Amino acid sequence: MGMYAQVLAVGPYSASIADWLDYGPDTYKRTKEGAVITCVLFGISEGSTLSRRLAALLGVSDAWDFNQHLVRSESINFVGLREFTDEYPWYDHDAAKIEVLWKAGFTFRFRPEG
Fold it and tell me: pLDDT tens across 41-99, in order?
């Protein structure tokens, strides 16, 4: 069994980002501005190679070093993520979403599985 990976995002809700969140904007109608919410990004299921590649783009050099799982915003390779989605276009929305959420003040955690 190979490694799978995802990115967990945690940050303040804002109506301006509702279209980017995990559920439709209508789901967030009663959510107060600033409420802490979570989102899941990527969900890499293709295996270890792609999961490690995503980790590297997030500045995580060892996917199983839990000390590195809090992604530092200055370590995110946004250009590399866009290039990644040229090759894997089904992750394009997630690459755009991580940038939107980063600008909205979210923090990110890399999460390997397997």
Answer: 999 999 999 999 999 999 999 999 999 999 998 899 999 999 999 999 999 999 999 99
Residue 38 structure tokens: 């979570």
Continuous segment of H or E residues that includes residue 86: helix 78-87
pTM of the model: 0.91
Q: How far is CA 98 from CA 57, 76, 83, 114, in A?
A: 12, 9, 14, 23
Domain ranges of the chain: 4-113
Do 2 and 48 meet the contact criterion of CB atoms below 8 Å apart?
yes
Contacts of 65 (CB under 8 A, 6+ apart): none
Q: Cα(28)–Cα(21) distance, rounded to whole angstroms? A: 9
